[in-house]
Each structure stands twice: as structure tokens, then as C-alpha cells.
Amino acid sequence: MDLWFTERYPQGWGITFKIERSLYSGKSRYQRIDVLETAGHGRLLVIDGCVMFTEADEFVYHEMLTHVPLFSHPNPKRVLVIGGGDGGAVREIVRHSCVEEVVLVDIDEDVIKVSREFFPSVSCELDNPKVQVLAEDGVRYLESCPPKSFDIILVDSTDPVGPAVGLFEKPFFEKCFRALKRDGIMAAQSGSPYFQLDLVGRVHRTVAQVFPAVRTYIAGTPSYGGLWTFVIGSKNGDPAQGPIREDQLAVSDLKYYNYEVHKGAFALPNYILREIGKQEK
Amino acid sequence: MDLWFTERYPQGWGITFKIERSLYSGKSRYQRIDVLETAGHGRLLVIDGCVMFTEADEFVYHEMLTHVPLFSHPNPKRVLVIGGGDGGAVREIVRHSCVEEVVLVDIDEDVIKVSREFFPSVSCELDNPKVQVLAEDGVRYLESCPPKSFDIILVDSTDPVGPAVGLFEKPFFEKCFRALKRDGIMAAQSGSPYFQLDLVGRVHRTVAQVFPAVRTYIAGTPSYGGLWTFVIGSKNGDPAQGPIREDQLAVSDLKYYNYEVHKGAFALPNYILREIGKQEK
Questions:
Q1: In the beta sheet, which residues pair with residue B33?
Q2: How much is the pLDDT for B253?
Q3: Side-chain-facing half-sphere of B82: CA atoms under 13 Å
Q4: CATH code for the domain of B36
């Protein structure tokens, strides 16, 4: 049987994967979750019909969401992840030996369960003793935690539809700012420059209203249509200057991130610069 | 009618475009050529079933193939394009006011004709008085031209199947080396890091056997599955150091290339570095 799963983006294009079989299909309180075995990319996680990641290339997104902010901070000890119930960001965070505590808050406990069952190479550090996993609303968690609780906040959300809508708005970024310590850094996925370019610009400008230093950076993510953006807001210093800490142990294990890639990721094509309101140079 | 064109890569994945209608379908002496009107990406050129470009994003590939080598050269006057019968590279080359002469050699005159008819925004500079268009074999042309004829050679080929096979081999790069002047630079498309990673590595190592300085660089090309590589061989100097010439007039018209992007394009993810035999740092 020649079975293909196709995610169709707006503007009449999409990406398609050859599928061996369906491993799981369920509806959580918040969203539909599917796990598919692909022919060439390992297992594929699909939420509400959108590709979340494949085993073959999830490293790009998870490494770049995590290591750019963590290597931009002098001494990250307490890290909060909002969303990211699959555990991929957590796996990358605990590579940094300076990190003492990670709190993962995902609203959908079924995502966490599905990842534990079907994606052991992604969820593998969720039981690390440094990691606390909470299935609750990330926004409420932020509201209830004391100010200046975290060195790093990563926003590892789905697209801005359904439960994740609020994670792209100014009040949410203000709550992140409040929960960050003096040198704190927030990083968030901010959409595709190909089919969500308006979102990329809007999120950048919104974060710029809250944080003194804001930057957008990019990575090459095949399963998300090729290129993805992240926005980073810093209370102290410009993350585009490159890593400010050496941790060769972490980098030598990685498949995407290195110190040159860190700096290069902030070199944005003109069409993205123009959208976020910056001048090319 | 819900019509979709899908290019399926090896490893069971691909990219798909919603199609309004077919504008042209023909068989040249060398290959099958199709022009499709897409729903969201303007017109699409397909050769032997492979996406060549869409009007919406051809700027990425053509700007990056052209401006990285041209801005790495102190004073490019004579430029040779092998392949590239569509004219996209030529359009970018003539933005540089220092360029005096461009020779385009494409083996397939039907590609040139189809581009003139269906892609006026791409082929628009083929009639520029600085440009000479030849429908002949690029390898033979190189063999017959005097040594040290060109400042820049761009290899704008199709995939290494059919007529383009020889354009990825050492004897071809040696002919390019011979035809380049003392400060000469060659740049070539070298495949997808997602579905042709072995090709990326092989071409890099082959060019390194011929040129004293070799670098691989990347750009985010949605229609080619998201990321593309180029290899650059230089007789003099490292192109990764960034542009060595200012030409603000050219850059301000561009949609992708700028001087930061030039430098950032050489920051390769670890998985590509390992394939081309370099160490991450």
C-alpha cells in the first residue's frame, strides 16, 4: 500500500511523508494526536494535522531552541519550558552541566504520555532527577510563580491556534519577563518565514515591547517546510554576539548547533529583516 | 479541480504544490520541461519531474549562487555561467556594475526559450548587451576557451543525472580552474543537505582537490525542500571571510543576500561539517 501523509500549508503547498503505518491516534482534552511510522524519517508526531517533528530531524529544532539561549547566558541554573511535553527541549537542556533544575509545564498530559511511549529518544530525560514535569496551563504557572524564578524560559509551543494562541501575545511575554531573573533570557519558536512571515514579524515586535534586547534567528528544519524562526528576548546583552560560555562537552554531542552556527543563525535574509522592521546591512 | 504536483525525494518524502493549470509541456533533446501555474508560488519550472524553481522563491537560489562569489572577488569583470539557461543567475550578475561581460552556456536551448516565454522576470537580462547566450555543451566550451579567461564561473546545473552528471566530477572542476584568472572564483550548486548529503560531501572534497580554498555554504530554499548547499572554490582568499567589496546599490535591491547573510551562510551545522570532513567549532 502506498500511503502518504501530507501537511498542506496555506498558499497551496505542503510537505509529504511516505507512511508505513499508524502507531497511535487519539484525542486529548485539547487536541488530536497521531503517531505515524514513516518510511524514511522514523516516527512522526502529528498534532491537529500539523507535523510536530520526525525522529530524523527533531534535533534541529530542539537544539536550536535550547542551545542558543543557554549558551547566551553566563550561568543558567533554573530553566522553565512551557509546552514541549515531548521532552526534546529538556533532553538538550540537561546537557548543560551548570543547569540544576528544569521545570516542564505542558497543558496536555497526553502529549507527555505519547512521547514517553512512542518517542523514547526524545523523552529520555523526562525522568532525570533535575527535571520536574507538570501537566498544567503554562500561563497560570507563570502567574503563580514568584518573580525572578528562572534564568531561562523556553516557549516550545504548537502553532498559534487552539491552546497555544495566548503564547504569542504581549501579556504572556510580560509574564515571562517577570518570572526571569536579572540576566534572564526567553526564547520561543516564532513560526515559518515561508508560510507565517507575518507571525514572525508580529512576534518579534511584540517581544521587543517587553525585553530590552530582542533578536530573531533561524534554523534549517526539513520537516517544517525547510526554515524556522525563533525569537529571543534578553534582559542583559545581545545573544547574537555568540556564545559567552564554553561547554565543549555539550557541543561535541550535537548534530546541528555549534558556536559558528549560533552566530550565523542571526544573519537574517532581507525579506525577514524587512518584515521585522530592521534594515539590511 | 484539486490538482497537486508532488516531487518525491528519496527517503520517502517530498514537496507538493497546488496547481492551477499546465502552461507548457515539452521534450527537448535532453530532458522533459514543464511549466505549471501554481496557486500560491507563481509559475513553476519542472525539468524531468524535478522542481527547478518557482517565481515566488527563485530569488533565494539565484541571489546566493551569484552574490556570494561576486562579492568575494575584488573586481569581477568577466563571468561565465554554465547551465542556468533560465537567466536567473545572469539577472543577478548584471546588478554588479563592475561586470563587463557575461557568457551563458546552457546545453539545452529549449530551457532558454521556455524561460524567455514563460518567466520574463527571471530571463529579463538575457538580452542585456553585456550578455552572450550560447546553447552548447558547457564542458566543451570550457575546453575550447583560452586559459585564464574568466574572473568568476558559476555552475548552475540540474541534479547530477542526465546531461549534468559530468558537472559534479573532478575533470570538470579542473577545467573551471584552468579557465579562471589568477584571483578567480568558482561557485556551484552542490545539492540538498537533507536528501543528497553524500553528494554535498563528495562535491566539497572533489573541489578541495582542485582549488586551494574551498568552502560549502547554505541558503534556505523552500521549493527545494528547505535548505540548499553551494560549493565555492577560490584561487585566492577565503570567501567565508565575508564580502570584500561594497556595492550598496546591488544589495539594496535584493530579497535574500546581505553582508551578514554572506558570512552566516558559511556557518554549517555539525551534520554537514562531519559529512564534508571538517570539525565543528
A1: B26, B47
A2: 86
A3: 27
A4: 2.30.140.10
Indicate which residue of A57, A156, A159, A247 is catalytic.
A156
pLDDT tens digits for range A19-78: 999 999 999 999 999 999 999 999 999 999 999 999 999 999 999 999 999 999 999 999
* Residue (of B81, B68, B80) closest to B115 by Cα position: B81
Residues in chain A within 8 Å Cβ distance of B218: 220
Q: CB B40 to CB A222 under 8 A?
A: no
Which residue from A40, A259, A268 is facing B12, i.e. has the nearest CB? Answer: A40
Residue B155: beta bridge partners?
B82, B188
Instruction: ipTM value, please give it.
Output: 0.94
Q: Which of B156, B198, B247, B253 is catalytic?
A: B156
Domain-located, residue B227: yes
| CB-based burial label for B7 (10 Å; 0-12, 13-18, 19+) | middle
Q: Is B156 in the active site?
A: yes
Q: Is B13's CB within 8 Å of A14's CB? A: no
Residues A39, A178 within the same domain: no
Q: Please answer yes or no on whether B267 and A266 come within 8 Å at the CB atom.
A: no
At B87 the three-state DSSP class reads coil
Residue A44 belongs to some domain of the structure: yes
Domain range holding B31?
Answer: 3-54
User: Which chain A residues are within 8 Å of B13, Cβ to Cβ?
Assistant: 15-18, 38, 40-41, 222
Q: Is the pLDDT of residue A163 over 80?
A: no
Domain count along chain B: 2
CA-to-CA distance for A99 and A77, rounded, in angstroms? Answer: 4
Q: Which residue has the higher pLDDT, B71 or A244?
A: B71
Q: Is residue B281 in a domain? A: no
Pair (A90, A219) in one structural domain: yes
pLDDT of residue A280: 53
Average pLDDT over every residue of B76-93 = 97
CA proximity to B272, closest of B207, B202, B209: B202
Chosen domain end from A33, A54, A75: A54
Do B92 and B38 reside in the same domain of the chain?
no
The rounded distance, in Å, linking the Cα atoms of A2 and A6 is 13
Among the partner residues B13, B221, B281, nearest to A16 by beta-carbon distance: B13
Q: How far apart are CA A87 and CA A81, in angstroms?
A: 9
A90-126, pLDDT tens digit by residue? 999 999 999 999 999 999 999 999 999 999 999 999 9
- Contact (CB<8Å) B267/A270: no
Q: Are residues A94 and A164 in the same domain?
A: yes
> Residues A199-216: pLDDT tens digits?
999 999 999 999 999 999
With cut-offs at 50, 70 and 90, classify the pLDDT of residue B279: low
**Are B37 and B69 part of one and the same domain?**
no
- Whether the predicted pLDDT of A281 surpasses 70: no
Judgement on whether residues A49 and A83 belong to the same structural domain of the protein: no
This prediction has a pTM of 0.95
B232 and B148 in one domain?
A: yes
Placement of cell 553582508 in the chain: B259
Claim to verify: residue A68 and residue A123 sit in the same structural domain:
yes
Whether residue A281 lies inside any domain: the answer is no
